[in-house]
Design goal:
Thrombin, subunit H, 8 strands, 6-stranded antiparallel beta barrel, 57% strand, 1 helix, mainly beta, two-stranded antiparallel sheet
């Protein structure tokens, strides 16, 4: 797992801003899958921004915390989800 997060082709540097805490440098894997939502009989396709982050670097991310990736600033939306092994957070982000 460390090799994946250290690979420059897979992960990027980011900064996590928790409420009331100091900024924390982290490595994240950025994903942008399209999400399909039903609205009546219509299907709406929208872009999403997700990141995977190691639990060892982000102890307790919460909705409303900030994440900066390069010049892009985001806010965590919704509850963070951990993988089966409890090692990786998946976070949904919205532009700040």
């Amino acid at each position: 797992m460390d090799a994946i997060f250290q690979d420059v082709n897979m992960a990027v540097d980011a900064t996590w801003y928790s409420a009331g805490g100091a900024p924390v440098p982290v490595r994240v894997i950025r994903k942008a899958p399209d999400e399909e939502t039903s609205f009546g009989s219509a299907q709406i396709l929208s872009e999403t921004t997700l990141v995977d982050a190691r639990v060892s670097e982000m102890a307790n991310p919460r909705p409303g915390d900030g994440i900066s990736i390069g010049a892009d600033n985001f806010v965590i939306q919704g509850e963070p989800k951990r993988d089966r092994d409890r090692l990786i957070w998946t976070l949904e982000l919205v532009p700040a």
